[in-house]
Structure formats: C-alpha cells, structure tokens
Amino acid sequence: MVSKQLGTNETLTSFPDQSGHFGPYGGRFVSETLMAALDELTLAYDGLKTDSAFLAELGSDLEHYVGRASPLYLAQRLTDHAGGAKIWLKREDLNHTGAHKINNCIGQALLARHMGKPRIIAETGAGQHGVASATVAARFGLKCTVYMGSEDIQRQSLNVYRMKLLGAEVVPVTSGSRTLKDALNEAMRDWVTNVDDTHYIIGTVAGPHPYPMIVRDLQSVIGREARAQFARQHGGLPDAVMACVGGGSNAMGIFYPFLEDETVRLIGVEAAGDGIMTGRHAAPLTDGIVGVLHGNRTYLMQDQAGLISETHSVSAGLDYPGVGPEHAWLKDIERAEYVAVTDEEALGAFRQLNLLEGILPALESSHALAHAVEFAGTLRKDQNIIVNLSGRGDKDIPTMAKIDGISIG
Amino acid sequence: MGRLTSTIDAVQASAQKSLVAYIVAGDPHPDQTVDLMHALVAEGVDIIELGVPFTDPEAEGPVIQLAHERALVHQVTLTSVLAMVSTFRLEDAKTPVVLMGYLNPIEAMGYEAFAEQASLSGVDGLITVNLPPEEAGPLAIALQDKKIDPIYLLAPTTTDARAAAVCQASRGFVYYVSLKGTTGSGGLDIKAVCERVAHLKAQTTLPLFVGFGIKDGATAAPIAAVADGVVVGSAIVTLMGENQASPQALKLEVSELVRDIRTALNASNA
Ligand SMILES: Cc1ncc(COP(=O)(O)O)c(C=O)c1O
User: Fold this and answer.
1) What is the DSSP letter of B249?
2) Which residue from A28, A294, A304 is facing B132, i.e. has the nearest CB?
3) pTM (2 decimals)?
4) Element (H, E) at A81
5) A27 in reach of chain B (CB within 8 A)
6) Which of A282, B12, B159, B163 lies 20 to 30 A from A159 at CA?
C-alpha cells in the first residue's frame, strides 16, 4: 500500500517538498548562476498559483485561445477491435497548436510577463513545445528563441518552418548527440547568459525545481477535466489512465488528479525504440539507472561511467535519456507503473487509429495507444481506460511517408 | 593542512597571486595530459584544475564543450582521469590538483568510492559545477573523510545571504565566476568584477579565486590585484583545439601563454 511509504504530513499530492524533492528525486542541480533565477521563479509562482486574477486570465486563455476543455471521446471501433475494456481518448490533439504542450506554455508566458521578462527561450525535440512556445510568444508579444538539435531539425522540418512563421528564432544545436538533451543544455547556457531579461520555458516535467512542479500543475488541467468528464459521461472512475512518457508532462498532467484515487491504475508508456534488449531505446524508467542530469535527480539512460547514453525512438518527442523526477518517485513507491512500446508497435497503433477512428495521432501518443489496445484486451468489457492522446500527427506525416517509401511535396 | 591550502598560503606568503590552469583531461589525447600538466607547472602554474569529460557539460561554452567531446572520443572516464592524476603524482608530489566536473560520473562511481580513489590518486579538491551546497551534504561528508576540499562557486547573481552559505561550505578556496554566461564568453567588465570581488572578500576568510573570461596577462593582472588567484581555462583549451595535430606545437603554445600570464601577474605584484 502506497500510503505506508508517506510521512505523517505527506500525501501523494503534497510533493515536492520545500526544497523541490519527490522522495530522493528532483532537487536543484544547477550552476550557481541560476540559483537566484530559480528562487525568483519559485517566489513568483508561489504568489501567482493561488492568485485569482492570474487564474482567471489563465482559465480564460485556456478556454478561448487553446480551445479547452478538450473532449473525452469513447473510441468505440478501437474498443471493439481491442476486445475488452472501453478505450476513451482525452483529445489533447484538438488543442490549438495540436498538442498538450500549449497548456504549459500559456501559463509560463503569463509567469514571464508577471516577472517582467520580455524574452522567452525553449528547447524542443519534436518541435511541438517549440511551436507552442513561439505561439504564446506571439500571443503575448514576447521575443522567442527555440533551441533544437540539428538531427531533430531534419526530421521535424515542418515544425521548424512553423516556428519561423510565428516569428521565433530557431537555433540549431550541433553539440553532443544533436537531439533534445543537447537542445536543453544549450537552452540552459542561454539562460545562464541572459538570465536578467529571459524566462526559460522548460517543456516537460524535468529540470531543476520548481520546473517539475510548475509544468505538472499547468498540465494537470488535462486530468482534472478527464476525471470530471468521465464521471459525467460514464459515471465513477476509470480503471486505468495511460499516457506516453518522454519527459513526462502529458502523463503527469493526466495522472496527478487521479493520484489519490487508489483504484485507478496509472500507466506510463516509454519508448522502447528497436526493443529494450537492443539498448537502442529511450526508456529510462524501464531500463535506466538513477543519476543527475538537467538539474534534477532521476532515472537516466547512462553507461557504467555515468556518461549519458544516446537514445533512440522513432518519435522525436520521446527521444530523451531522462524523465521527470515525480515519475521516478511514483515508480519507486509503486503508485504508477511504467512499460515500454517499440517503434514498430507505435507505428502500428498510428495506422490503426487512422483507419478505425479517423484520428491522426502523434507518434508519441501512438505509444500509449499501442499499449492501451493490448492492455484493454486483458480487461473486462465493463472496465474503462482513459488514454491521453497528447497530440496530433500532422508533424509526423513526412516520417511516415518516408517509412512507406512515398515522396511527398 | 592539505596540499591546496599550504600551496595557496605559500604563494600568499611570497606576496604573489595563485595561477590556476584548467585543461580537460584527455584533450586532445589522453597520452598528452600528464605531460601538459608538468609543462603548466614548469611555467609557473600553482594549481591544476583538471576537467572531467562529460557528455552534457551544460555550463560550458563552445570551446570547452569541444574539448569534452575530443576527450570522450578516446573513452576518457572518471576512472581514467584519476589514473592520470596518479601518474602525474609519480613526478610531482607538490602541485595541488583540483578536479572540475559534473555530478553524474561521481554518482555513478559512488560518493565513498570516488572519495577513496580520488584521495589515493592524489586529488586535492573538487569543483562540481552542477552541485550547489544545498544538495551537496552526502558528498561533502565523503570528501571530508578523505581530506578532499569541496570548492563551491559564487556568481554575479549570488545574493549576500547565499554567498555566506557558499563560503561556509567551501574549503581551500572559493571560486567567483566572473560573468553571467558559460565558460569562454567574452567581454569581461574588469571594473565591475573587481568591485564585486572586493565586496565578497570582505565576507570570507577563504582565498577568493576568479575565473571565466580571463584569457591573457592583460585580463589576469587587474583581477589578481584584488583577488587571491585567477583561473585560466578557455584560452588554454582554445590552443588544444588549434594544435591537435602536433603535440610539440601544442606544448610550446600553451607554455608561452601561461608564461605570459605568470609574468604579467608577477610584474603587477612586484
Ligand atoms: C504530442 C506529444 N506527446 C508527448 C510528448 C512527450 O513529452 P511529455 O512526456 O513531456 O509529455 C511530446 C513531446 O514533444 C509531444 O509532442
């Protein structure tokens, strides 16, 4: 029982502690230059998170600009195909800009404005967080620079052009493995240099405290809506809630409001790439070692010497060697379970959702879908699974076409 | 008293300023590192700061990032860095060696195992770039057991209250990062740095060293006038990048740069 592992004044939702830890995970492992900025951010956020004017503005933008609430949709044909529990899709793909990332960006742009920072920076892998950041920068009149690994710039060229249309500067990162982790390093370097006028919008529940908390709180709108929608549309609670895990923000966002519902299984789906056994994957919770990277202690893909490994996933948004510290903690206390799905399985689910439901999912979200279909088959027909459909797959069409050997424009 | 403190004390007793040289272990090739360390000492370097290569050196500018990548090509790990220090110690029992790196390789080795092996190799101090004192408790205890000095950083953004805590936790010296930015950034405002250094020195009895942005005699001398020592990093590492093909040329160029800085320090302090 999970509650036995908690201290007297602790609940599953009372974390992180004052210093930003989720049990042994999280914390603040950054160079001294950033400590003051993190303190400033913590203070600003503490003041704003219960401020009614801030919450009203956030709520209004989420409704009128992002288009929330996103629907909770019963995928009947997918359910029939899986042959077990009902599969419900939380349609984050229908948000403005096409993914859950905007929920976080709207909130952090408001924070930046409140702190008087005229410039925002972001890292991006798939380009979704970059697009969402560039979008809110345009919406609020902020300057925006997005760091993106040169490898990812190749595979997500559509989103690169989109960010430029939105007025953002996209900086290719050619160091290290040239993917998301290196973009994060480069964004940190920018922030260290321009900390006076710049706010760094981290795109997931990783990074130093208070980021994992802020991003989780801002993404929790997903789970709050889903919980209420399920009660209204079906009644009661679902049996399981499922989401893909890259850094873990869409998963944390949908899990968090269900944490204290002990009957609800929370299942995170990592990217197994070519297969866990091959080592070519991006699944630190499934096959990683605890360490420190990007400001927090968590599970990481690393070698014996503590060097960070290169990861592999067909989906750029999951291609990250770390994972948010709250997931590391939820895994250890066994409140959430984590599994991994291969590229091939995810590609299968991608095609399947198109054919059975007329919905084009992001390759990231397709990982959660693949596991949901398999898992639903092991449950009874009167049981229910909610899957976070974290984004839409338009950005992945070039990748799919290439796999299919089709040349498009 | 450790080798670090006794060395700094001796430099101060001779009315000089400490010169610290930073190189990344294994850059440009592991076979050259120990030889370069001896060459640095021969040109008047008092303390060697040896960078431990890491895949994600998030506080470094492009010059030092590339040095980490060059070393990693040759599979240089924390274990091999410690072996280099042991080899250096066969001929030099006197010059303090401070490791500078990121926390994860130390976590992977284990704090106690690291402290033990570092101490056996002859390491005197440790700067862990991404480990502020708030998170450093367990490692600091392991280091203390083995008489290795933990050295923490102060930044232009550090408040007075934090500065007091950082100095409290540091041993050997404290390291003032003289600019907001990564290693190797340009445009040091020497006057502002000197003011800040004077302010910080009034708050601690530990020696205060300044690094980031010091690239030659002209930048080193005015800062050394107010600080207890200066750290030169990217300027040396730039030469590593430029002279990868020729170990001889590299040693000559590095020696010349360090000699110039040493001369400038001595002259301005004469
Ligand atoms: C659609 C979509 N889902 C999921 C992710 C993975 O991020 P996280 O695990 O933070 O939700 C991304 C990242 O780019 C994404 O674009």
Assistant:
1) H
2) A28
3) 0.97
4) helix A76-82
5) yes
6) A282
